[in-house]
Amino acid sequence: MFRRFACGFFIMYLGLQMACNRTPPLIDEDPSKRVGPFDGAASGLPVVVGRIVSNSRFGTPHPSHWNRYRTVQLYGLAIHVENVLQGDIQNPSIDVYYFADVGSQGGPARLGMREDGGQWRIGDRELFVLRREAGVFRTVCDFSAVCVTPVLTGAHPAFRRNISRSIKEDIVEILLTRGEHCDDSQMIRAISSDPRGNPAWSFSESYTFKKLRQIATEETSAVRKAACEDLSSAAEIRRITLPWLRTVCP
To answer: What's the CA angle centered on 123, arms 45 and 19, to 5 degrees?
Structure first.
C-alpha cells in the first residue's frame, strides 16, 4: 500500500512539475497593435523595477505569427521585484515572458540576453511595463530593446510613489536618482546611456528637464557636467531656449 501511495505521489509530483514548466499559449505581438512602455505605463499597466535572476527558452524557434519570414523564440525571465511603481503585484519573484528574434539581424538593438543578441546580463536591473495574458506576465512589447528600460542608478529600496507626480514622472525619478551603491560612472551612464539620448526623455520631457536641472546643481562635478551636456543637446534638438541654462551650466 505504501509503495502504491509513493508511486502515486511521485506521478502527481511529476505532473505538477510538467504543468509548471508548460509553455504558456502566447504568440508574438501584432505589429499593428504595438504599445510601447511609455503609453503602457500611462494606460495603467503594471510597472515594476526588478533584477534578472535567470532566463529560459520555451518551445522552439518558429515563424512569427504575423510574418512567416521572421523566426522568433519565446523566452521567460525570472525577476526579483524591488519596486512596484504601478499595479497590485505582491510577489517578490515573478516570471516575465517575451519574444525575441532568432538569427542575425541589423537595425535597432534587440530585446534579450547578450548571448542571444540582446543587451541583458544576469543581475541587471530593469524597469518593466507588463501586460497580463494567458495567466502570465509578458513585456509590454516584443523584439526591441526599448520595450524594457535599464535602471543604471542602483537600488531604491526606500522609493515610494508620490501622489503629486504622474507615473511617468515617478519613472524619471527612478531612472535619474542616485540609489544605493551607485557611483559617478553609473550616474553618467544613466544620463547618457542611449546614443539617441537618455531614456527618461521618452517618459516625460518636462520632468526630465526639471530632474536634470536638479542634478546639474546638486551632484558631483563629473555628473553635473554630463547633465549639462544632455540638457544642452536636448534644448538644441528641440530648438527651445532654457533661460536658466547658462546660470546652472556656466
So the answer is: 65
Residues sharing a CB contact under 8 Å with residue 117, sequence separation 6 or more, in sequence order: 100, 101, 105, 110
Rounded-to-integer distance, Cα 6 and Cα 28, Å: 41
Name the residue ranges covered by the structural domains of the chain: 23-150, 158-250
Position 59 pLDDT exceeds 70: yes
Q: Which H or E run contains 214?
A: helix 205-218
Give the global pTM: 0.88
| Rounded alpha-carbon distances, angstroms, from residue 186 to 5, 23, 151, 182, 226 | 57, 37, 10, 6, 11
The CATH label, of 2.40.50, 3.40.50, 2.30.30, 1.10.4160, for the domain at 23-150 is 2.40.50
Q: Do 73 and 103 contact (CB within 8 A), yes or no?
A: no
